[in-house]
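QA checklist item 7 of 12: single-chain prediction sanity check.
[x] sequence parsed
[x] length recorded as 129
[x] structure emitted
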Amino acid sequence: MIRLPLSQHRLVWLYRLALLAAVAAISWLAFTSVSVRPAQLTSDKFNHALAFFVLAFLVDNAFPRMRFLCVKIWPLLAYGIAIEIIQRYVSRDSSWLDLVADGVGIALYWLPRKWLRQVVVGRQQLDLP
């Protein structure tokens, strides 16, 4: 466990800022026509799964009092769908298999979720659902 010298409230805001940065970076990577070298080192499906694993982690920690399966999963899936729809109009390949990879990334986060939520904690622990 990594205990930061931040209050849990400030740590939540740090996660929210990281979530905003991740959505901006992932959106740019998803919609740009510029070839990005690091993103090409692995398969496209792996990139999708990794991106949505990270997004699921950040969403879960940015909004710790909301239930994951009831509330948080739907915006993540909607974002994945939006990426695929927009990619059709910006000269990028759109694939429904990318949505499957997005779901796999979310599921891979959900399985060890309880442990991953405790990896980084602030000074005061929140009671989490």
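[x] summary fact logged: The first helix runs from residue 8 to 31.
[ ] second reviewer sign-off
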